[in-house]
Amino acid sequence: MGVAPGSYHEQALHRWGEAYGRTSGTLHGGEADPAGAAGVYREVLLLARELLVPLPGRAARVLELAALIRPG
Length: 72
Known about the structure:
single chain; 3 helices; 72 residues
């Protein structure tokens, strides 16, 4: 997108990788309790805002998708 990430974005990208790993593990057979799943979901929403909201062409759609109560 032609935007150089700052240190703030570098930290968010690192946290995104960790959250993605937890989410991926759950999706591929790991155990998940409702509270843990809700916590990871909240973290993913926060990280999506931190990483993508500054990208004006994609931010509105990303937030719209993240707000779905029952994604399909």
